[in-house]
Amino acid sequence: MTMRAIRYLLAVFCVLGVAVVPGGQQAALAQQLDAQTLGDGMELFRVRSNFYVLTGAGVNIGIQIGSDGVVLVDAGDAAHADRVIAELKKLTPRLIRYIINTNGDADHVGGNEKIAKAGKSLVPAGDGLATILAPTEVTLRLSLAGYPSGAWPTEAFIETLRRDMHLNDEAIEVLHQPNAHTDGDSLVFFRRSDVLMAGDIIDMRRFPVIDLEHDGSINGEIAALNRIIDIAIPSVPLVSREAGTVVVPSHGRLLQEIDVVEYRDMVTVVRDRIASLMKEGKSLAQVKASNPTRGYTKRYGSDTGSWTTDMFVEAVFKSLAAERSKRR
Amino acid sequence: MRIRIATAVVAGFVGVLTAGRPAWAQFGPSEPDLSGSWVPIPYEDQNERAGEGPLPADYTGIAFNDEGKALSLSTPLSRYSMIERQCELYPPHYLAVGPFGLKILAEVDPITGATIAYRIGAWQNRAETVIWMDGRPHPSVNAPHTNGGFETGQWRGNTLVTRTTHMKAGQIRRNAAQVSDQTTLTSYYIVHGGMLTLMTFIDDPVYLSEPQAVSRQFRMDHVNTVASVGTPCISAYEGTDLNSVPSYLPEKNPLIGDLKADFGIPGEAQPGGAETMYPEYRKKLKAIYVRPEKCLKYCGGSGPPLGGLGARGGGPPEGVGAPPGAPAPGAPPR
């Protein structure tokens, strides 16, 4: 065989080698675009054409991108702020315009200051950094907790339960859910994208954290879950399609309306059981001893960690007791 | 020397051509084909699948652990009449539990002819199932759980072995017997002649103490074909309070005892549990089982048809005795 023949064969080899990559492998590549592993436990999901969810930065961060710039839902924790900025730069050259906090917990607001500094406000006033938007309760909490002022919301709303925006050709509703997980929870609904950022209202990994210290309540939590169900629309009437509103919790997997229904039902059933026992005059110890989470404990409960089953039952009990004493 | 170079080049060429492709693709398709219209052979679990349906709160034969029993016994069927649940679909394991046939389409790579995926058409209450055959990995824990789940498969001889993850929570029996969203499903699609046997193992670390095995039979039918798209669903008020979640308080399910009244089956068997799946359980019940004086329900035989889809009651009219082959008085339940 001559060198010419070898070169010819190599050329054919290269051309055909590219041409025959099986379609399945192409499809797999396409799928990887929808969920890209970034390393260090972080993943980027392309939920809609201009909407992404970045996981593993303390909380799931919503990223809406368009000609007006970048709107973020939550900043993640402080430890991941630089990484979040770096990933955003890889994703788009556009400026960060807004950070909307779904509550005032550290894993939601820890990155506020750094990420706001990396952006630029659309409003030509103040410090010019990206705007941080949240209900007033979040501002109060961050100031009381000793966060630097650069981490505080620069656009706090108190006058209404809803703050509207229209950015990147899309209506955005920020819906304050008073006294749910805390007193400063918001849902953020991107209407055209049909994506609802749900914050800590729903956490499929565990029972909902009812933070009584920050004015959370079980009935506010259930009201907020019902609000999500009101907003989210499943694939009806064509039910066999995998479609519908995407609900993004701050932790865990992406959800659809029926997942929230499942969770809401669980929380309501446990609330009702505890309310029934309280009506019978049972003490907290007796309520705990009756195991009111049975049927849900193995799925959502825990005996260890920062939020145990015992803590959840106690929070529900105390929340209901507080409401009862208010009514008297 | 030249021969060696040529051999190496050709070997490399063939190697690249075949990389990532199933072996059969090099020599033409020789693996079985799952595609076609498979109609159900309905005799297995007929009453549960397509007859009256399972009795409410009858969880006998389900490998529930204590949590599974507690969850299902606290769930009234009216839960599924809530507006937001009326169009809820069953999880993919309903393929084995439900009554309908399978319309299976192959998605083929236009260049290599390799099967990229099989698509099993949706039913009115089950989403389309896609079985990925191209070796792609399952998504991460943060990926959504879908109505169809995420299923991958591989042929082993005449059997397509698949694994499904990322499913939603849902019913394992159409009477509020539930498994969680952590469930995985292992399925064996066994093709033999014009027949298809589907053997499934539903494994839920949350609510089952061991995998639940469910099987079905189908036969290929080119004439009476199966639809590949489910019907639409429109929800409407069905009488369930719009502002509450129906539930039974723990140990207050009023249906416990129904199986004893209807069949003499002791109440302890009704919530199920792994031991109720096995024949040995009969020995345990033998001492406490009292056979009813006459058959009240599901009496079998060649009597009149049962009460119709979805209805309770039915069965042969008064006075019709036990079917041929029924156990003698005092014998344990079959």
Reading the helices and strands of chain B in chain order gives: HEHHHEEEEEEEEEEHH
Largest interface: A-B, 63 and 73 residues
> Can you say what the CATH homologous superfamily of the domain at 35-257 in chain A is?
Ribonuclease Z/Hydroxyacylglutathione hydrolase-like
- Low confidence ranges of chain A: 8-33
Which structural class is indicated by helix and strand composition of chain A? alpha/beta
Global morphology of chain A? globular
Largest sheet of chain B: 9 strands, mixed, barrel
Give a count of the beta strands of chain B, DSSP E runs of length 2 or more. 11
Beta strand % of chain B: 15-25%
Helix content of chain B: 10-25%
Q: Low-confidence parts of chain B, pLDDT < 50 over ≥5 residues?
A: 5-26, 302-334
Spatially, the strands of the biggest sheet of chain A line up as 1-2-3-4-5-6-7-8
**CATH fold description of the domain at 35-257 in chain A:** Metallo-beta-lactamase, Chain A
Distance between the termini of chain B: 77 Å
Percent helix range of chain A: 25-40%
Report the sheet with the most strands of chain A, covering strand number, pairing sense and barrel closure: 8 strands, mixed
> Any idea what the radius of gyration of chain B is?
24 Å
The main sheet of chain B orders its strands as: 1-2-3-4-5-6-9-10-11
Explained architecture:
The complex is a heterodimer of chains A (328) and B (334). Chain A is of the alpha/beta class. Chain A has a domain at 35-257: 4-Layer Sandwich (Metallo-beta-lactamase, Chain A), CATH 3.60.15.10. Chain A is 38% helix and 21% strand. Chain A has 11 helices and 13 strands. Chain A has helices at residues 3-19, 23-34, 81-91, 106-109, 112-117, 136-144, 218-231, 257-279, 284-289, 297-300, 309-327; strands spanning 35-39, 42-48, 51-55, 61-66, 69-73, 96-100, 131-135, 155-157, 162-167, 170-177, 185-190, 195-199, 246-249. In chain A, the strands form 2 sheets. Chain A has an 8-stranded mixed β-sheet. In chain A, a hairpin with a 2-residue loop joins β1 (35-39) and β2. Chain A starts with a helix and ends with a helix. The relative contact order of chain A is 0.09. Chain B is an alpha+beta fold. Among the domains of chain B are: 1-30, no CATH class; 39-51 and 77-220, Lipocalin, CATH 2.40.128. Chain B contains 6 helices and 11 strands. In chain B, the strands form 2 sheets. A 9-stranded mixed barrel of chain B has the order 1-2-3-4-5-6-9-10-11. Chain B has a two-stranded antiparallel ribbon with strand order 7-8. The model of chain B is unreliable at 5-26 and 302-334 (pLDDT under 50). At the A-B interface, α1, α2, α8 and α10 of A face α1 and α3 of B.
